[in-house]
Backbone:
């Protein structure tokens, strides 16, 4: 199957949400809503990054594998690989 | 929206007698200030402007009648975009006159119309009666037998047409009574006639084809034409009485056919004439109403504004010496300049010689809370306020709720497909909002959904994101990056053979075998779990831990927000005596739990999966300080745990006793009573001498220095017992609440599990049945199956689950998040604004 690394997604998403949460607030134009928009950006970045991080860390070192039906295994053998 | 409510001040308005109406009108248009009642002891009948209000109500009554008439004739009342201003007092009399004239005219025309209609009804009934009795007479002469019921004196019937010579021989005169009676009463009528007249009458009747409207009740009922033939005067009187009793409409019966034909002709012409007149009357009425409807809307608005202004004027107090009205208002400090401008404008409109002015006065009352919102933030502000309006100048949770509420909803709802449908629905509402606002539907459920359109849009967008992470789209997974689990590796490493596949129906992939697991799926949950039988074992563990992590972080955020309150209200001691022990307690216990979760994820893998410890057992053992038999998670664990427990235990008495003891020490002397604690009074020296202003009572202090802001910091007495009691309740609530609130966040797991399972069941039980049929008929069959699938998805998964997740996310905010820092016992600022006042007619649906 496809081999995934932990490092590459970690770097990608950290920079992505870092841009949203740290850099974008400086780019918001001045106006009456600036405070709300900056707060929203930071909170969005924190929430989404945290959610993605929990998902990937939970799968990084699995303690057990998926239990499949034999028909499913046949199918995967021929169609996914 | 700001992070805390705006600064308010109490101001006095001195309104000159000539221009007070215009000033208040100007203020009503702008909606800047909230008026206070300066005459609370005066009943509403004794106030100054009672007669003006009575006049306004009279005008409203006439307008109500007018609108009802307009609605009856189904003329549309045109809306105007700009609402007209309140009319000056001189114009009021004009409007009043116009309305009264209209009312008189309308009632007269209505009366005439009714008379004409009654007349018409009578004539129509007479016509029917003549036509039908004609058939009776003629049918009788043609057919001997009419039926057994009327077969009393057959020979007599044949004679009746010819002048009843046989009757005259008997010395009795044959008489006829004819008329109409309601269909429902006919049988009873007949029976009564039979019993009373003992068979000396003959009744024949037939139904009228046309449905006639009974003018008294307005019902359309079937009527029956009857003809009673009798002889004898006594019987005649009895018959008359019975007919009266049954409310029959009696009409004279013609003697012979020629007379009948004459009467019919004259009736016909009269009916035609009447119809013409009626038609023209209706046209005239319509014209009058059409003309009135053009200005109806502006009249309604003007009267509403006038009434509101007089109500406000009743709240002011009259100063005899200065001949002006004094009003007291709460005004945001930032709007004081606008207020002055409005008063100047009003004075200019009212042609006053002396201008009205504003005077800011100090006050010890707690001002109302004002948080300015725009159309996007108002939805989130309203769901925070549904719990409680914030105290004056305390931190508002609303700006954070804009993101955290949709996020927590999405964690519970997490489905890509459902999220897309929800977002599209919300997007449609947002893009068509101008038209929807004009429609102003009376359906409350739709209004609720429409006013929350931005909330639903945010919830939908976040649901798309969490749906992608959960890898759940209508209960199916997307395989974007390629799964990390390889089945082939199990074969190449000689773990499985073809024979193993044939003999075992279920096989588990082993991550210990090299090549089977090649790294975590980069975005979300691996798609292979959707095909796995033990899917829930993995997902439950993942979601439960995720819920605890999110919960602890959310609660810590709430505790941190309380620091801003303590600093703003100059209660720095609270930071050390309240915030610090709270945060330490929370983080030492539950922060450590989060740490253990993360550590276990990172440190334990497939190799040592048999020795992977249960976090829950370790956590419980930490509290009871046992567990020497268990293998530690990491070296030094016992030492660290004891340290954390000790800190947490120490922070409880600090929370419990620290603040009361400190306040007691301060009260007793300490470093001198620092008057800068609590909320600072507005101590601005006003322009005028405030001796003319009415004095305010200082609010009584039951406790000493308590936490609620805005109160006087000078205590008359300091009740140690009260403060200690309050603080102990707070400590118990916080400590026990930490545990229960953390567990409460597990609803994030529970609801997302329920949603996923419902979605799977719906797919499996409904859609799959349609897709499994392989014949051509299957295509046709798929259409209703998909319809059912779509209907059930929308009703169960979107509406029901959506409402459920909405409610639980709301509860998490209101209880678990807000009880860490928010009081919510304030009063909302309600400005005097014409646009906020509902019109009586709109509520009745007349406008």
Residues:
């Amino acid at each position: 199957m496809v081999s995934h690394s932990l490092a590459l997604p970690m770097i990608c998403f950290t920079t992505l949400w870092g841009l949203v949460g740290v850099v974008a607030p400086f780019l918001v134009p001045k106006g009456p809503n600036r405070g709300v928009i900056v707060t929203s950006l930071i909170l969005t970045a924190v929430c989404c990054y945290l959610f993605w991080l929990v998902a990937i860390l939970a799968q990084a070192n699995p303690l057990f594998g998926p239990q499949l039906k034999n028909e499913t295994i046949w199918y995967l053998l021929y169609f996914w690989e | 929206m700001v992070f805390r409510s705006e600064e308010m001040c109490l101001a006095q308005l001195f309104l000159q007698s000539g221009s007070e109406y215009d000033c208040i009108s100007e203020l009503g248009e702008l909606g800047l200030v909230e008026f206070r009642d300066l005459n609370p002891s005066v009943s509403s009948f004794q106030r100054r402007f009672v007669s003006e209000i009575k006049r306004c109500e009279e005008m409203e009554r006439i307008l109500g009648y007018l609108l009802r008439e307009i609605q009856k004739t189904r003329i549309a009342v045109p809306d105007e975009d700009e609402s007209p201003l309140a009319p000056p007092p001189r114009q009021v009399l004009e409007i009043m006159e116009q309305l009264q004239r209209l009312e008189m005219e309308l009632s007269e025309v209505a009366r005439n119309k009714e008379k004409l209609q009654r007349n018409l009804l009578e004539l129509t009934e007479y016509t029917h009666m003549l036509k039908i009795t004609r058939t009776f007479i003629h049918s009788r002469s043609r057919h001997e037998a009419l039926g057994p019921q009327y077969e009393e004196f057959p020979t007599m019937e044949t004679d009746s047409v010819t002048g009843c010579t046989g009757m005259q021989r008997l010395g009795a005169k044959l008489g006829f009574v004819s008329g109409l009676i309601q269909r429902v009463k006919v049988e009873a009528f007949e029976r009564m006639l039979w019993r009373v007249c003992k068979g000396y009458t003959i009744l024949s009747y037939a139904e009228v084809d046309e449905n006639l409207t009974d003018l008294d009740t307005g019902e359309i009922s079937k009527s029956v034409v009857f003809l009673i033939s009798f002889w004898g005067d006594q019987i005649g009187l009895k018959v008359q009485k019975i007919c009266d009793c049954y409310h029959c409409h009696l009409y004279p019966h013609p003697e012979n056919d020629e007379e009948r034909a004459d009467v019919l002709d004259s009736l016909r012409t009269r009916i035609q004439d009447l119809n013409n007149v009626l038609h023209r009357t209706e046209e005239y009425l319509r014209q009058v109403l059409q003309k009135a409807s053009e200005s109806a809307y502006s009249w309604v608005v003007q009267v509403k504004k006038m009434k509101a202004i007089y109500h406000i004027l009743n709240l002011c107090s009259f100063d005899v010496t200065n001949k002006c009205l004094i009003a007291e208002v709460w005004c945001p400090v930032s709007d004081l300049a606008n207020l002055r401008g409005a008063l100047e404008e009003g004075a200019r409109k009212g042609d006053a010689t002396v201008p009205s002015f504003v005077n800011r006065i100090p006050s010890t009352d707690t001002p109302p809370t004002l948080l300015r919102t725009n159309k996007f933030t108002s939805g989130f502000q309203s769901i925070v306020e549904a719990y409680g309006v914030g105290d004056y100048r305390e931190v508002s949770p609303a700006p954070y709720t804009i993101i955290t509420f949709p996020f927590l909803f999405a964690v519970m709802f997490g489905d890509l497909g459902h999220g897309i449908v929800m977002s599209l629905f919300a997007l449609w509402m947002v893009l068509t909002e101008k038209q929807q606002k004009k429609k102003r539907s009376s359906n409350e459920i739709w209004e609720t959904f429409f006013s929350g359109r931005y909330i639903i849009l945010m919830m939908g967008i976040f649901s798309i994101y969490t749906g992608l992470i959960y890898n759940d789209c209508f209960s199916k997974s997307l395989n974007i990056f390629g799964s990390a689990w390889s089945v082939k590796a199990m074969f190449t490493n000689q773990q499985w053979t073809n024979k193993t596949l044939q003999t075992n129906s279920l096989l588990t992939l082993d991550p210990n075998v090299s090549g089977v697991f090649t790294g975590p799926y980069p975005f979300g949950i691996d798609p292979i779990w959707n095909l796995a039988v033990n899917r829930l074992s993995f997902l439950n563990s993942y979601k439960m831990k995720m819920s605890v992590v999110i919960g602890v972080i959310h609660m810590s955020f709430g505790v941190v927000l309380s620091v801003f309150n303590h600093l703003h209200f100059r209660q720095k001691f609270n930071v050390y005596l309240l915030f610090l022990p709270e945060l330490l307690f929370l983080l030492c216990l539950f922060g450590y739990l989060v740490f253990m979760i993360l550590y276990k994820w990172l440190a334990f893998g497939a190799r040592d999966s048999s020795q992977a410890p249960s976090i829950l057992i370790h956590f419980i053992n930490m509290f009871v300080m046992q567990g020497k038999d268990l293998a530690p998670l990491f070296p030094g664990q016992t030492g660290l745990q004891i340290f954390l427990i000790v800190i947490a235990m120490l922070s409880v008495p600090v929370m419990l006793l620290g603040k009361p003891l400190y306040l007691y020490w301060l009260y007793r002397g300490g470093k001198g009573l620092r008057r800068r604690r609590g909320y600072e009074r507005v101590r601005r020296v006003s322009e005028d001498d405030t001796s003319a202003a009415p004095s305010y009572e200082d609010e009584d202090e039951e406790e000493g220095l308590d936490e609620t802001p805005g109160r006087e910091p000078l205590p008359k007495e300091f009740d140690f017992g009260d403060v200690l009691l309050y603080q102990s309740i707070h400590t118990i609530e916080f400590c026990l609440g930490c545990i229960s609130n953390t567990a409460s966040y597990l609803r994030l797991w529970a609801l997302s599990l329920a949603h996923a399972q419902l979605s799977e069941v719906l797919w499996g039980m409904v859609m799959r049945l349609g897709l499994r049929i392989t014949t051509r008929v299957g295509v046709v069959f798929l259409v209703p199956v998909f319809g059912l699938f779509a209907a059930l998805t929308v009703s169960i998964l979107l509406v029901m689950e959506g409402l459920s997740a909405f409610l639980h996310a709301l509860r998490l905010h209101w209880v678990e998040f807000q009880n860490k820092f928010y009081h919510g016992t304030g009063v909302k600022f309600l400005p005097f604004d014409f646009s906020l006042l509902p019109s009586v007619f709109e509520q009745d649906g007349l406008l």
